[in-house]
Amino acid sequence: MSQKQLSAAELMEKGFRKYSGEEIDVYFNLDTCMHSGHCVLGNRAIFNTDRRPWIAPDNADVEEVIRVVENCPSGALRYIRK
Ligand code: SF4
Questions:
Q1: What pLDDT score was predicted for residue 57?
Q2: Which CATH architecture has domain 8-81?
Q3: 38 lines ligand 1 (CB under 6 A)
Q4: Ligand 1 center–CA 71 separation, angstroms
């Protein structure tokens, strides 16, 4: 899903939580998540709800992180490339 790019401050203000990576940060908003499972099914190395933290941006290439984040149907996932 194509989303307006928000700043880190705007995302935090909207209730997103930050998951930091070396080259990219992933942001997640539980209130927006519709639990479709696209993220976990998309790449379990990055998104794994059995693990804490459940999002590990460094477990795949940046392009792969972006691909899966952009596949989130609700807008609960965002990213900011460093
Ligand atoms: S893809 Fe998005 S809406 Fe679906 S479970 Fe993951 S974060 Fe939630």
A1: 98
A2: 2-Layer Sandwich (3.30)
A3: yes
A4: 9
